[in-house]
Amino acid sequence: MxxxxxxxxxxxxxxxxGAIRSGRLGDGERLPTVRQTAKDFDVAQATAxxxxxxxxxxxxxxxxxxxxxxxxxxxxxxxxxxxERARALAEAGEDAGVSLEDVVAIxxxxxxxxxxGPESH
Amino acid sequence: MxxxxxxxxxxxxxxxxGAIRSGRLGDGERLPTVRQTAKDFDVAQATAxxxxxxxxxxxxxxxxxxxxxxxxxxxxxxxxxxxERARALAEAGEDAGVSLEDVVAIxxxxxxxxxxGPESH
DNA sequence: AAGATTGTGCTAGCTTTCCAGTACAAGTCG
DNA sequence: CGACTTGTACTGGAAAGCTAGCACAATCTT
Lengths: 121, 121
Hints:
Chains A, B: It comes from Agreia pratensis. Chains A, B: Pfam families: GntR. Two copies of one chain form a homodimer. The first copy, chain A, contains five helices and two strands, in the order αααββαα. Chain A is mainly alpha-helical. The termini of chain A are far apart. At the A-B interface, helix 1, helix 4 and helix 5 of A face helix 1, helix 4 and helix 5 of B. The first copy, chain A, binds a DNA duplex through helix 3.
């Protein structure tokens, strides 16, 4: 019931981005092939390719034409403090039975609250 | 550089959802009118209306035709533990200079990691 | 060196969503 | 009661993204 099966290039990119930044995919580790990812998420190859392209553009992965796509050396993990607090939040959320989407919405709201509010009415 | 200005019905709904679940919008508090929200985010009225509709469908808001849309009584705040940890994560993320989108991606990855993998082929 | 693997590029068509403007119904407030 | 406010509904058109299939180039593997 995670509910959210990625179905757009952005969502797929976000998925791998998370895997990389959270350390679940380590330096130099290989991502599935474009074709495989397309199958996995039941999308067109062009969509999976677009996702990979975005990741490369961000410097998160390195892609060589026939060698596959691998996590770029160095620029992988986010600071441990962030990861740990993310874990804490995830655990709290699941314990409380709050859906992932809700937790994300809360995080966004809290994030915006810290900064000088752009919204004014 | 908050970057993400909501421009779709889903995103707008998510924004208010976060505001409500995080307690930034309390019980009975009134949301902007559909027309106002449409202006605020520079979208069509139908789009703002669709967002409100979704929120009502989730039971987060109550809407009476000429009295406006208000936060539904009771079903508002998420558990305090979740909110606090969300705050902690937000602070850690901003301190570390990690973007909101990245933090969200990490959260999603960590969340999925706890549960049995939905991947199946 | 030869064949298989893998990322890229392209076209055409489709589906979904949003836009814009307007009209209507239901409730509030003076 | 009467005027205003506010959410809802509708039409037609436009834009963005995905699908599907194929061809190509670069690299790996044997």
